[in-house]
Q: What sequence folds into this?
């Protein structure tokens, strides 16, 4: 008899949720890049150089998160560390979104909830068993 928690050929539910969240984060980053490019083209910038630099940094982050999502889909071993680093960056941004004069709690929660979820999923047994470094 096969135990109920044995993952099928598609992977465990935890790994599927982890991968789905990472792909959603990657899509969100691509959308942010598109918005920033549109802003550069249509709105006057106080500093065009800063606007371009920010857009380039966000584009690099979008590529990184996309690579992590693809790696999770392929069950590559390096994904756990990379995903953890990205979630810690998002947690820092979420904390900043809750504070200050221009606080945006909705953005903070939108970043905090998936980040905490992914961190928890990264340390579940089923995900750790399916995403291992090759010897």
A:
């Amino acid at each position: 008899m096969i135990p109920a928690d044995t993952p099928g050929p598609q992977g465990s539910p935890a790994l599927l949720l982890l991968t789905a969240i990472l792909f959603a984060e990657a899509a969100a980053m691509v959308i942010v890049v598109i918005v920033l490019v549109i802003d550069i083209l249509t709105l006057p910038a106080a500093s065009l150089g800063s606007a371009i630099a920010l857009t380039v940094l966000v584009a690099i982050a979008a590529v990184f998160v996309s690579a992590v999502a693809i790696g999770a889909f392929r069950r590559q071993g390096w994904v756990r560390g990379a995903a953890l680093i990205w979630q810690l960056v998002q947690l820092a941004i979420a904390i900043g979104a809750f504070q200050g004069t221009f606080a945006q709690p909705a953005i903070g929660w939108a970043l905090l909830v998936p980040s905490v979820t992914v961190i928890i999923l990264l340390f579940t047994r089923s995900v750790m068993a399916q995403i291992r470094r090759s010897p």
